[in-house]
Amino acid sequence: xxxxxxxxxxxxxxxxxxxxxxxxxxxxxxxxxxxxxxxxxxxxxxxxxxxxxxxxxxxxxxxxxxxxxxxxxxxxxxxxxxxxxxxxxxxxxxxxxxxxxxxxxxxxxxxxxxxxxxxxxxxxxxxxxxxxxxxxxxxxxxxxxxxxxx
Length: 150
Prior knowledge:
Elements: E1 2-15, E2 18-23, E3 26-32, H1 39-51, E4 55-56, E5 62-64, H2 66-69, E6 72-77, H3 99-116, E7 121-123, E8 131-145
Parallel strand pairs: 3-6, 6-7
Antiparallel strand pairs: 1-2, 1-3, 1-8, 4-5
Helix pairs in contact: 1-3
């Protein structure tokens, strides 16, 4: 599974001009599910997202996790993260999990976030045409990947 996390001042997802998920300070996490991923990868990615130290401590160093900073997490499903872009000018989506599998694993990921995180957890809508608003703080962006063997 792939998580592209961005430290944010705020984030929101709209579907048909309706806000379906939003946070204040926290992380916006774009989530891609690849073939071979399972519940173990979803749980591990949630753990990594919640514990990755990207927020400043009192000295200004990135030493605090979103849990320690008690920020929100906005999880947005994004199958294009699983694209194979090694050749040509058009992405191949063969590495991406089937939509039914991906939707279930995105749900496992969100459930794991909600169980473990004291702050707000919001989501986009799987399979919808979403508009994602983000004020990236820093900018601070990291690519986290949990391979199927993890």
